[in-house]
């Protein structure tokens, strides 16, 4: 059995954070021996890479190894090209600020990596909802589709009269969680959920409102619902508590694509990057952890002081089962939705609605759930092809994606034409990107289950990523940074 040990690249670290001792002291023949701290990051998505960068800042002399089972870093941050135009194959952008008005963790990482000059923002072009054979403007003043005043929705959706009455107590008890759809249906009726909330949540999570946790997907509304007696009051309170500045860009991306963030983070971390070498088992040792790596016929091991586990819930649970069975059971049941992205390069001059894109309610029955008019939403060279990115599939619809790429691309073009009310010409180029099991589905009670799981983790092991702390680049970056801080604290305590 071979042992995988390699030196990390030497890089400097920020001096703005307290530094964990990067060595441990051992004895050898009566002499004191200084041993560099070694940390394994399992998973090379943006959460794992953010953890590696944070580890470098907190413990600049440590040795960091990022193990990524696939052949590429970045996870769902993957920049592609179509007909000479840059088109993201995964996440398209990130929130610039949080609800508290502070810059998001994604922006913080962009600045840490010196990429702030590359920040770009989408044009201010409206979006729409597609249903009933028409494109309706996205209503203003909602919170992820939940209105503060349902009467203002016009014929877009009608609320059940009298259902949102003040019952003399908060909508939610302290610590309670419910499905978003359950709360909104009870207070506003089915039409608001089906026509507004479902497509809005589906655009982010590819899930259904009746199965997604309010606490995870809409934390500001959940907090307000523990105080307010009506849903309309809770929405107004959540909106009033938001400190986002009107007029400032909501979303950002990087000129040249989000893969730049991946490459810059890998470089700044100074980590040794190991691609295509799966981590199959974890075991405790006297000083930390032993990783069993590689294929069964040719196993390797690596000894480290701490681990950041930044992979999906099921592989995390499998690795944790021998060392923390209770934690494995708590996280292993998280479900995922599969989606496919189809990019179409339509001939120059193809006419599209004056929109950034649209969302489609599940009630429409289409495989298409969302579309982005890339060349209208983002600055792109004039006179080139018209690029549209189409998202297909929702939770529970995996069998509807079981066609070859050519069939999916043609289905996307055909449905897109029906939804905008005009047949589209044959594309000059296409690609299909499949994300099988790519989007976590947070059932009610997720936060409570996760807190219990983290409390049961052995020292020196931390969880990070979308499976645990939310989808979106800012959530994943913040999750990775927190995990790095946790393992650094554990190493400091053990020193």
From TrEMBL:
Enzyme Commission number: 1.3.3.15
Main location (coarse class): cytoplasm
Purpose: Involved in coproporphyrin-dependent heme b biosynthesis. Catalyzes the oxidation of coproporphyrinogen III to coproporphyrin III.
Pathways per UniProt: Porphyrin-containing compound metabolism; protoheme biosynthesis
Keyword Manganese applies: no
Region listing for Disordered, in residue ranges: 1-23
SUPFAM superfamilies: FAD-linked reductases, C-terminal domain, FAD/NAD(P)-binding domain
Gene this chain is encoded by: hemG
Name recorded for this polypeptide: Coproporphyrinogen III oxidase
Keyword presence, Flavoprotein: yes
Single annotated GO MF: oxygen-dependent protoporphyrinogen oxidase activity
Record's keyword terms, sorted: Cytoplasm, FAD, Flavoprotein, Heme biosynthesis, Oxidoreductase
Family: Belongs to the protoporphyrinogen/coproporphyrinogen oxidase family. Coproporphyrinogen III oxidase subfamily.
Subcellular location: Cytoplasm
Required cofactor(s): FAD
Amine oxidase domain mapped to chain residues: 46-487
Pfam families for this protein: Amino_oxidase
Catalytic activity: coproporphyrinogen III + 3 O2 = coproporphyrin III + 3 H2O2
């Amino acid at each position: 059995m071979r042992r995988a040990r390699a030196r990390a690249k030497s890089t400097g670290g920020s001096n703005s954070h307290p530094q964990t001792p990067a060595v441990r002291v051992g004895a050898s023949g009566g002499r004191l021996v200084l041993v560099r701290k070694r940390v394994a990051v399992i998973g090379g998505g943006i959460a794992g890479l953010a953890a590696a960068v944070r580890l470098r800042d907190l413990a600049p002399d440590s040795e960091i190894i990022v193990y990524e089972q696939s052949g590429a870093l970045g996870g769902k941050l993957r920049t592609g090209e179509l007909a000479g135009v840059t088109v993201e194959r995964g996440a398209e952008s990130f929130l610039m600020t949080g609800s508290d008005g502070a810059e998001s963790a994604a922006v913080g990482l962009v600045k840490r990596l010196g990429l702030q000059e590359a920040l770009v923002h989408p044009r201010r072009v409206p979006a729409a909802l597609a249903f009933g054979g028409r494109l309706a403007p996205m209503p203003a003043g909602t919170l992820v589709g939940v209105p503060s005043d349902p009467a203002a929705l016009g014929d877009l959706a009608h609320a059940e009269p009298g259902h949102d009455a003040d019952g003399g107590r908060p909508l939610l008890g302290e610590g309670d969680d419910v499905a978003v759809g359950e709360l909104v249906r009870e207070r506003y009726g089915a039409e608001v959920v089906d026509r507004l909330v479902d497509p809005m949540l589906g655009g982010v999570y590819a899930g259904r409102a009746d199965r997604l946790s309010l606490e995870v997907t809409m934390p500001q509304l959940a907090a307000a619902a523990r105080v307010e007696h009506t849903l309309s009051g809770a929405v107004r309170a959540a909106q009033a508590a938001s400190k986002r500045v009107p007029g400032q860009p909501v979303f950002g991306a990087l000129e040249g694509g989000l893969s730049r963030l991946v490459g810059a983070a890998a470089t700044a971390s100074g980590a040794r990057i190991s691609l295509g070498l799966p981590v199959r088992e974890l075991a405790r040792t006297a000083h930390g952890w032993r990783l069993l790596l590689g294929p069964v016929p040719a196993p390797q091991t690596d000894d480290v002081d701490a681990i950041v586990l930044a992979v999906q819930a099921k592989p995390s649970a499998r690795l944790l089962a021998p060392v923390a069975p209770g934690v494995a059971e708590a996280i292993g049941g998280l479900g995922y939705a599969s989606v496919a992205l189809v990019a179409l390069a339509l001939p120059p001059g193809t006419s599209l609605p004056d929109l950034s894109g649209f969302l489609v309610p599940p009630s429409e029955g289409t495989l298409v759930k969302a579309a982005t008019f890339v060349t209208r939403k983002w600055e792109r060279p004039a006179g080139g092809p018209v690029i549209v990115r189409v998202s297909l599939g929702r939770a529970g619809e995996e069998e509807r994606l079981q066609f070859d790429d050519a069939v999916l691309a043609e289905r996307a073009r055909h449905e897109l034409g029906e939804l905008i009310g005009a047949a589209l010409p044959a594309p000059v180029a296409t690609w299909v990107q499949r994300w099988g099991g790519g989007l976590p589905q947070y059932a009610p009670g997720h936060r409570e289950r996760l807190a219990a799981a983290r409390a049961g983790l052995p020292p020196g092991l931390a969880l990070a990523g979308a499976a645990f702390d939310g989808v979106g680049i800012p959530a994943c970056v913040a999750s990775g940074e927190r995990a790095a801080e946790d393992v650094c604290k554990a190493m400091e305590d053990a020193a």
